[in-house]
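ugh ok fine here u go
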Amino acid sequence: MEPHYRIMRANIPEVIVPAKTDSEKVERILWVICGLSGLTKEQLMARSRKRELMEYRQMAGYLMCMHTGLTLKAIGYHLGNRDHSTVIHARDTVSDLLETNAEFRNKFKTINEKLNLWKYGK
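structure:
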C-alpha cells in the first residue's frame, strides 16, 4: 500500500526517527516536498512540464542525489521512471537556480530545513 502524500504543512512532525535506508530517504524527500507544495505524489511524478511541478520534481531529484547513494537511473525511476540524463539536468538546474533565484532558494531552504530535522546523510 502506497503512503498518502497529500498532507498539510502543520502535519509534518518536528521530530522523527532518522531514515536509515535509501528507500526511506526517498520516501521522506517525496513526503516533505508533497506536504509543503500541496501536490500529490501522482502530480509530482506526472509527465507534466508545468513550471511549478518541474521545479518541485527537480528539487526532489537534487535532494535524492545529495542524500542517497542511489544511481542516477534509480533516482530517475523514483521520479516517475525518467532517464538518468533527466536527473543530471535536474541536479544542474537546481544548482544553478540556488545561486541565481532568491524565490527558488527560499522554497528549497524550507524543504531542506524540514529534511535536516531528520539528520540523515549518505
